[in-house]
Specification:
The chain is of the alpha/beta class. Helix content is 42%, strand content 15%. A hairpin with a 2-residue loop joins strand 14 and strand 15. The structure holds pyridoxal-5'-phosphate (PLP).
Amino acid sequence: MNKPQSWEARAEEYSLYGFTDMPSVHERGTVVLTHGEGPYVVDVHGKRYLDANSGLWNMVAGFDHPGLTKAAQDQYARFPGYHAFFGRMSDQTVMLSEKLVQVSPFDRGRVFYTNSGSEANDTMVKILWFLHGAEGNTKRRKILTRWNAYHGVTAVSASMTGKPYNEVFGLPLDGFIHLTCPHYWRFGAEDETEEQFVARLAQELEDVIAREGADTIAGFFAEPVMGAGGVIVPAKGYFQAIQPILKKHGIPLISDEVICGFGRTGNTWGCETFGFTPDAIISSKNLTAGYFPMGAVILGPDLSDRVQAAIEKIEEFSHGFTASGHPVGCAVALKAIDVVMNEGLAENVKRLAPRFEEGLKRLAQHPNIGEYRGVGFMWALEAVKDKATKEPFPPHLSVSERIANTCTDLGLICRPLGQSIVLCPAFTITEDHMDEIFDKLEQALNKVFAEVA
Ligand SMILES: *Cc1c(COP(=O)(O)O)cnc(C)c1O
């Protein structure tokens, strides 16, 4: 029970909680944080937690990077806010767009800014609807995504998200179609090889396009690795199998790189790691290393030319957010890109990823871990009741929540996702931090599996 007037009690009295298991909060109280130190966060009681989720995947440079806070402070002192409407924008906005195109996989392109990843996906859908309409393809409005995909929470991006929890909102909206999740371990049929699984998913895409009509489909959105779906690395050859089908039918492929972008998979972009070239990229989260809320749509050359031509025709694109291209956000993003790419953070991910995998491989020997999976600095362990049959634990046991809660007690933050535990630390962590993650996680796994076995 919370003490009256405690931070925990005040939090519960006045806040509406999102993505939070309320029984856990009532039982355990809210963790109220005051500040961070490197990859650690500190609560109001002075307890330190190693945040193995780097906030929500985004605080990739840790919680107290002096260069990032200075970039924000300097820009606040110089020009603390402006928009990007009516032919005006800040110098920082100009520089960031130039930079984003330079570091993108595209040789040319254009950038549009939002405040979040959800809005960036919404914006991309509006761009596609606008473009197809302007080109006379007014029926091209349906959006293809996959089950388990996470694209955000606004009405459109939640419709793109392939999660059953959106049913309580009466979502998805009509015209949002979800294809099979490319997770071979979980969704591969018995006796089906990985290659056959990919061929089946490619055939499903062909069938859906044939059923709906290619001339009704506006675009296909995919995360290179599904993040909030539980770190689902696509089956081998998945993107190579689907991209030609999309191309053949004139369906743009949008890479939602909100998590994968800027180093998380070990390369600048997830599409690089998985060997495909999208028509546009959605960026957010690490774009500012989490130091400012910001999202971006980066159009590749083809979409960029076509959308620009369509805008010129009607003279004005009626879309934008008050804080689109915010000068402080742009200054922070410029610094964040520099920090990740030039201060050794991206190299650290590449260098330590094999060690990360080794540690998980060892933990996955436990009879109640069915699979470990991931790439770069995004990994998951999936709990199972029976390793051979992959049978999950009954949901009422809340196994992953109990593991995560035990970790929290031990001073380690990791995230339960379905029956998985997700690890996605800051890019700045050292070998010692990694050992701390594995030691505490192992203690938690042993304790909880002993209770439920
Ligand atoms: C987090 C996330 C989003 C949504 O971003 P918000 O800033 O929370 O709106 C979209 N796509 C992916 C892949 C994400 O991980």
